[in-house]
Amino acid sequence: SKVSKISKISKINKISKIKYNQVK
To answer: Which domain of life is it from (predicted)?
Structure first.
């Protein structure tokens, strides 16, 4: 369960990074 949580967070971070870059 810990690993899935970390992967979920990393996925969200990736998506937020992409969105942030798109806004820029």
So the answer is: Eukaryota
Q: How far apart are CA 2 and CA 9, in angstroms?
A: 11
CA 8, 12, 18, 23: dihedral to nearest 10 degrees?
170
Residue with tokens 């369960």: 1
Q: Rounded CA gap, 3 and 10, in Å?
A: 11
Classify residue 24 by its DSSP letter: -
Per-residue pLDDT 10s for the chain (24 aa) are 789 999 999 999 999 999 998 887
